[in-house]
Amino acid sequence: MAFTANSRIRRLELTLVTSLGVNASRIRQYIHTKPIVMIKVLRILLILFFLFAGSYHFINPDFYFDQIPPYFADYKQFINYAAGAVEMGLAIGVAIPKTRGLAVIGILLLLIAFIPTHWYVINQEGCIPTAYCIPLWGAWLRLLVMQPLLMFWAWSVR
After folding, report:
1. CA distance 157 to 42
2. 41-67: per-residue pLDDT in tens?
3. 102-148 confidence digits (pLDDT tens)
4. How many domains does the chain have?
5. DSSP states along 131-147
6. How far is CA 123 from CA 69, 134, 138, in A?
7. Contact at 8 Å (CB) between 47 and 20?
8. Residue 121 falls inside a structural domain
9. CA gyration radius, the chain
10. Helix (H) or strand (E) run with residue 127 in it
């Protein structure tokens, strides 16, 4: 017999009410508010993450300049500052309920737009001498694990 999540919750409620005499409405409130609280916490963390990441494009632009592939050399400054402004704008968009859905889609598109940067770091074997050096597996980890996790994080708080 397969149980859905709702039937499992109902069975848990029934068990607690009958065996412990716990108020069923209090259990429902607890069970249904915990995921909402977690989503709000993850949303706040996402907003802070993208506000920090976006502002860092202005605080330390040299860190990002060297990560931008050479075929964008003529536009490095524009790309860096635009990415920073967009990241901060999208973070603010996630904070506003009416724009949250569009802002999350914007974050997903922005993360996809950053893939050439990750690919460039992989082609440099993880070492951007004027910025940082990481093992090659770390560069692959950024692309294949971190990017999808950031995308999932953004999508989960919409």
Report:
1. 7
2. 999 999 999 999 999 999 999 888 888
3. 999 999 999 999 999 999 999 999 888 777 889 999 999 999 999 99
4. 1
5. TEE--HHHHHHIIIIIH
6. 10, 12, 12
7. no
8. yes
9. 22
10. strand 127-128
DSSP letters, 49-83, are HHHHHHHHHHH-HHHHHTTS-GGGGGGHHHHHHHH
Query: What's the whole-model pTM score?
Result: 0.77
Query: Looking at the domain assignment, is residue 59 inside a domain?
Result: yes
What the block records as the tokens of 16 is: 């607690």
H or E segment and range at residue 158: none
Encoding tokens for residue 130? Answer: 């004027």
Name the residue range of residue 130's domain: 40-156
Those residues whose C-beta lies under 8 Å from the C-beta of residue 54, and which sit 6 or more positions away, are: 83, 84, 85, 86, 87, 88, 89, 91
- Calculate the alpha carbon distances from 33 to 37, 40, 46, 98, 153 in Å: 6, 11, 20, 21, 19
In a domain, 11, yes or no: no
Which DSSP category does 2 fall into? -
Rounded Cα distance between 58 and 67, Å, is 15
